[in-house]
Amino acid sequence: MRMPSKEEVLEWISENPTLTTKRDIAKAFGIKGAARIDLKRLLRELEAEGHLQKRSKTYRDPDKLPPVTVLQILDPNEDGDLFARPLEWHGEGNEPRVMVITRASDPALGAGDRILGRLTEIQDEDHAYEARLIRRIGTNPRRVLGVFRKTAEGGRILPIDKGDGKEWMVLPEQINDAKDGELVEAEQAGPKGRLGLPRAKVVARLGDPSAPKAVSLIAIHQHGIPDSFPDKVIAEADATKPAPLGSREDLRDMPFVTIDPADARDHDDACWAHADDDPKNADGHVLWVAIADVAQYVRPDTALDGEARKRGNSSYFPDRVVPMLPDRLSGDLCSLHEGVPRAVIALRVQIDSKGKKIGHRFCRAMIRSVASLNYGEVQQAQDGHANERCAELMETVIAPLYAAYEALVKARNERQPLALDLPERKIELSDQGEVLSVNFRDRFDAHKLIEEFMVLANVCAAETLIAKKSPLLFRVHEEPSPEKLDALRETAQSAGYTLAKGQVLQTRHLNALLDAAAGSDDAELINISTLRSMTQAYYTPQNFGHFGLALRAYAHFTSPIRRYADLIVHRALITAHGWGEDGLTPEMIERMENTGTHISDTERRSMLAERDTTDRYLAAYMSERIGNEFTGRINGIARFGVFVKLDETGADGLIPMRELGREYFHFDKDSNTLTGSDSGIVIGLGQRVTARLTEAAPVTGGIAMELISLDGEVVKRAGGGGRGRGRSGGPARRKATKAKRKADKIKRKVSRRRK
Asked: Which of 502, 518, 534 is the last residue of a domain?
């Protein structure tokens, strides 16, 4: 009986990815009895050398293919199945086999073609991955969004983009069953520059232009967000090769992990922590934060850089992402996928037991994430319910991360950044784009852990560049204006709370107000009103501090895949440390102010498009519930009616003035109230309402309602049949009188202040 060599074991494991237990390996090589002890020792040596990772009772090659990668198509097999080989493989064994799953709309692929594919890891007898085509390398067909019109020659597409008046011709065989009047997505067919109308083929039918699946696409075009990359940009991305180790620090043996939402496709930050072994920092921690080195691939004065600056940031919608960088970078080379070597800029920071930063340093490095984890499973592991892969990482990775986080929480509590409690909505869609549900996202300590690490990393980046006297873009958040603070103070007073006056405003003063309202019916109102009093954060080369985070200097460093500001900071660090020629150029420094203004504008553009999209999806979801009654809270008062935030979905609905009751309502701008001329009912911010849904328009995102009850008391309807209590001296009248006295008190205070 001969013991196999290490090379033979690795080759066998690579060729048999589904048979990786010690028993399988022993059976394959005929190893029995006491020889199993020698096999066990050999496997341990391979594990120690980094060739294998032991997971539960199986051994496997630690290197993986990234979820997005470049593949070369091979000849079809005798069954007609299409396979491909990866062009990037770092494993010791043979490269894994990939089956390409084609769709009817995909172009024909032949042996030798190179494609960018999205991979799914599977366990099959003859292949380890399945791939879906993103696009063929070297091709970048133009995409068109428009309304399809049937013609005798086939059809035409009328683009919905206001800046594109050109129609597209569609041949009969390229209609893809599109119906007249449908919104379709098409791509250019045939060579460019032909005489007459350009040709296109329909690749996706989106149905009614007002249907949910069309919502985000319409918002993208209406707000002018670029959603297709120029040919030159795609060509540069496709030509990019993985960064070599070179002079980088080799951190591939450190157990970095990424922690993201479960549906995340790109991973631009990884972290690891351990107890500090420095005797001067007893009970302290060392935290590592590694950020994808986008500057390695997006070089100054290239088409890639110009397009990234133009976009400014990625835009996120419930059903799609419009990325700042092409898939080859955002989903592949710049994404810190599990088991794949990736170039990073890494930060090592020492903190003491109270979360105070003792020291830090940056380096250009190479890491290999040991796991791509999601927030939910990490939190469950910390709470004592670890799944298999988290259980293996508890002692060495997850527990030390939480220990470092708990120290940072102490420093955060002392610093007192603004502590708003505003739940984030999550819209869940079907494959057809229909809204299945509207919920509020779970928020775990795992989320806060990553946020706290990223804030610390951003502070370190700003401090380092200030110390090195390097130009950079700060993330600035100025304190609220006196006018907005007065409005917040009046809202707080109307709800029975106090916001300190006559002193320099600090976030701790606002937190005291938020804490006072926490757990009460007024909590949401106070949180929203506080948020509305804040100024908009922006990017600038001047350091005005970050009021909301209670920080003297702050710069975005941690998301260069999706924010151009972070790429600027990465380049500043490269120049400041002398790491290479891909840092800041004199031209970039000269136009830093303009860049800050531009990307602040693109950020606002994306926020508006994302908000419009959310409003339209919510309206589409509500449109099937016309006539239903909903509870909510008044969060806005205007001359034409009141705005209500609904409890169930967080949607904002308008109750027009005519739907408030049977009387005339007087609008008082100073107290921000509406007062009924007959009943004396005062309608103000924060009051509880029940309202009936009367209209929901998916095209505009508008939701209209009629008032049923106010603070539990039924109100009369216009032309109604006595559902309200009218002008009697019942509870509604008494409550209205009390509310009016409160409003009058506010008006007197406002009047005295103005004098």
From this structure: 534
| Residue 410, both tokens | 């102490």
In a domain, 520, yes or no: yes
Q: Which pLDDT score, from 0 to 100, does residue 51 have?
A: 65
Element (H, E) at 350: strand 341-351
If asked whether residues 403 and 343 sit together in one domain, one would say: yes
DSSP notation for 268-326: -EEEEEEE---GGGTT-EEEEEEEE-GGGTS-TTSHHHHHHHHH-B-EEETTEEE-SS-
In a domain, residue 618? The reply is no
> Is there a single domain that holds both residue 528 and residue 588?
no
**Eight-class DSSP state of 331:** I
Residue 447 counted as domain residue: yes
Residue 728 lies in a domain: no
36 pairs with which residues across the strands? Answer: none
Question: 402: Cβ–Cβ under 8 A, 6 or more apart, which residues?
Answer: 382, 445, 449
Domain that holds residue 497: 479-534
Q: What is the pTM of this model?
A: 0.77
Q: Please give the structure tokens belonging to residue 13.
A: 């494991």
What letters, b where the CB count within 10 A reaches 16 and e where it falls short, cover 384-395?
eebeebbebbee
pLDDT in tens, 320-368: 899 999 999 999 999 999 999 999 999 999 999 999 999 999 999 999 9
Tokens linked to 447: 């989320």
Q: What token pair was written down for 411?
A: 């420093």
Rounded Cα gap, residues 286 and 350, in angstroms: 5
